Input
Amino acid sequence: MAAVKEATGGEGVDVVLDIIGGDYLPRNLECLRLNGRLVQIGLIAAAKSTIDLRPILQWRLTITGSTLRPRSVAEKGAIARALEREVWPLLDRGDVKPIVHAEFPFERAADAHRELEAGRVIGKLLLRP
Output
């Protein structure tokens, strides 16, 4: 959370996409700015969490969830086309950039997993062949 606040000048981020769930929920909420959104897209750690609801009210936060699994092939195709049309141009122009926490050679994949499990990762870990 401190790294997110530092990287955003204390404001926080607009959107958090969370694949972990569980105890990450309160931390994710702390990373959001005013009118921020948390989108729960996975539950790797746990499906349950306990949170203080006051920040949701005070910061006018939105929590929502989604998954692709129960969607039809046509719906998934429409989502893929929308991503290609709406999101890829943002990446191409550099308007949106992934945060790379660290890079590891493929032989050190176990070290990368340990970093993830320790909860020290902000952004993505890259494995290089």
